[in-house]
Each structure stands twice: as C-alpha cells, then as structure tokens.
Amino acid sequence: MNVEGFKELAENLKKLGPRLAKNGLRAATSAGAALIRNEARNLAPVDTGEMKRDIQIKREREVRGGELVTASYSVYTRGGKKSRLSGKARNVDKDSFYWKFVEFGTAKMPAQPFMRPAFEAKKVAAVEAIGEKLDERIQAHAADLGRGQ
Predict the structure, then answer these.
(1) Is 35 exposed, middle or buried (0-12, 13-18, 19+ CB in 10 A)?
(2) What is the tens place of the pLDDT at every residue in 108-147?
(3) What interhelical angle do 6-16 and 115-146 show, nearest 10?
C-alpha cells in the first residue's frame, strides 16, 4: 500500500524540527505496520506457534545524500537461516519457511491465507493509526516548545 503526501508531510515536519520529522514518521509508520502484523498473527493457523511468532515488522529506509528519503515498514514472515539463528534459543528445528505454502496453498494443500486478509482488514485502520501517532508526536513536540525545551 502506498500512501501519498508523505513527502510533503515530511517537509512540513522538518520545519518543526528534524528530530520530530525523523522520529515522528518512524513511530507513525511503525504503529500502522504493527496493526497489520498483529492481525496477521491473529489470523495465522497455529500448529506449533512458530509461524505466528515469526510474523514481524521490518524498517526499511532509503538514504540519499545523507538524508532519509523514505521511512517504510514491511510486514513479513521470517523463514530460513535467519529465522533459525535469531533469538536466544537458536533452535535449528524451528523454521517458518513453509509460511508461503500455508498462505498460497500447494497442489496437495488448500491455501489458508493470513497475510493478505490481515492487510485488507487493517489497511484503513493502519492509515488512521499513522495519523493519530503523528498527531500525538506533534502535540507532544508543541507542548515541549511551550515549556521552552
């Protein structure tokens, strides 16, 4: 999903301060992604629970000329070697590589989609959460300015 107008918003936030622009957008986009991640976890079929735990959000950023150009988050399911080596347990038996078979199905198994329905169910709420979080950050920044900080 692409939401238009963030470039203009980021430029206006920079006028309030670069820290607010950077951290405010990051917190806001993270809040939206977290809603979709949580819904995907709720919809994911559970056998061992590993696949549900492996649904994560990841910050992706693009920097050009030392300046942050985009602040985006992806909701994804960890799988493969990275998944096996992450966390404290480091258990090589736990691997959610099979999530795509569950999501899309196979010739011998019907699809049990959980990522796409989570996105469809929460995309509007995610945009609203982004706006609410930005508003919250701007209000807090304005209060700090009012106190002289």
Answers:
(1) buried
(2) 999 999 999 999 999 999 999 988 998 888 888 777 776 7
(3) 20
Amino acid at 73: Y
Q: Tokens 């061992």 belong to which residue?
A: 48
User: Taking the alpha carbons of 100, 124, 21, 148 in that order, is the dihedral positive or negative?
Assistant: negative
> How are beta strands 67-77 and 55-64 bridged, if at all?
antiparallel
pTM: 0.77
Q: Which of 87, 3, 2, 5 is nearest to 53 (CA)?
A: 87
User: 38-73, pLDDT tens digit by residue?
Assistant: 999 999 998 878 889 889 999 887 777 776 666 688
Distance (Å, rounded) from C-alpha 82 to C-alpha 77? Answer: 11
Question: Minimal CA–CA distance to 86: which of 65, 56, 60?
Answer: 56
